[in-house]
């Protein structure tokens, strides 16, 4: 027997995914278009490359995003993720050093009591 709310939850999930896709359509490297179409790389007359929906029409519903801009945005995102990872690692190393000191102190207290 299936959950009576499963169909509704799936519908809301698809709707949320579509809205999220629309909001971030022209940010970073696109994986697929809002219409569900595949993304290809095409060049214009000046030689600039673009990520373009295979069904592109200039109606505002399809993706045409400059490759250089998309790569810069992707790199900025990766840099910020890297910075977060580095700061988290430093915090963990500091906590580990503190725990080692506490363990040493506890061992010394145990040895003194014997």
UniProtKB/TrEMBL annotation:
Residues 68-109 form a coiled coil. Keywords: Coiled coil. This is Zinc finger GRF-type domain-containing protein. The keyword Coiled coil applies.
């Amino acid at each position: 027997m299936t959950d009576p709310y499963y169909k509704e939850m799936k519908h809301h999930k698809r709707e949320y995914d579509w809205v999220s896709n629309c909001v971030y359509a022209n940010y970073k490297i696109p994986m697929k278009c809002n219409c569900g179409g595949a993304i290809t790389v095409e060049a214009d007359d000046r030689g600039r490359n673009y990520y373009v929906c295979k069904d592109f029409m200039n109606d505002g519903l399809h993706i045409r995003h400059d490759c250089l801009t998309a790569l810069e945005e992707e790199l900025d995102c990766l840099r910020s993720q890297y910075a977060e990872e580095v700061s988290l690692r430093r915090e963990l190393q500091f906590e580990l050093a503190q725990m080692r000191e506490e363990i040493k102190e506890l061992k010394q207290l145990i040895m003194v009591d014997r």
